[in-house]
Design brief:
This protein has 311 residues and is of the alpha+beta class. 45% of the residues lie in helices and 21% in strands. The strands form two sheets. The protein has a six-stranded antiparallel beta sheet with strand order 5-6-3-2-8-7. Strands 1-4-9-10 form a four-stranded mixed beta sheet. It is built from ten helices and ten strands. The chain has one domain.
Amino acid sequence: MTDTTPVPPNPQNAVDQFQIEADKIIQPFIDKLKAKAPPPIIYHYTGDGGLRGILETGQLWLTDVFSLNDPSELNHGFSLLLRALMNNAVSRDAKNFAQGLADFSKRVGIREIGNHFVCCFSESGDDLGQWRAYADNGRGYVLGFDTAELEAAFTKPDQPGYAQASPLTYDDAQLEDIHRQIVERLFQLISLPCGSTAVQAEWYTFLTLKALNAGLYFKHEAYSNEREYRFLEAHPSDQPVPGVKIRHRPYSLIRYREFNWRQLAPGALKQIVIGPAADRQQAHQFVGDCLRFFHSGTVRISRSNIPYRPT
């Protein structure tokens, strides 16, 4: 089918038109992903300090997406966009534009494009890789939350920013196809000269933002065992983000926001799983004490079924 969308008569209109066209490409994928029935329970892996903090304060932390344990996932998605640009750039102007975006990303960086905070859960409550990576090498805990109740509280209209929850996709080919469609539409719209440096920078900014928006729903296939279910909160880059706090990680400071799950969804916590490498009696006592001192309501306590002894 031939695309009959008219090319805007000037560069600024082309920028505006590109945003509309890019959203038409990305949104069907997002809608399909969100239409999937959520799992009944989602699980959050943590250590003993995390368990106590989540129960004592009633807060879950939404971490700056660029401070995640594996921030390379966003750079990975952006690299797929750059590759699609380079592969589809035929004319000299197109090649110059592709190189300009690469230079822009190094000069400005994709972290300057927006403010995105996430809280990561899993559809799997007993995964060895996550016990090792996120729960003190198997000595930690998993908190199981009722998905529907927690998600409804997180996405309430009066919450700050744009909030949504969805599973991640582990399919590079699908993300590459989205980027390819965006790039093809882009080159149709920039067949006219890009104009001033300011307009060119605006092109780079919006293209980077669209790549980021798509990439936030994907993770490298090597992490598919995690079956991640992500709570995402987005804020505009040109506005201050309310309630941002700073915490320490070795050699770095991490931005985060708090989500008061106990106030908004007090009955959401359903289960706590003790790690496969934890001392059974001591860990069970610790969970019981935390629940008794910091939480009201019935929570089932169980233990991982994985035979694992850390080295």
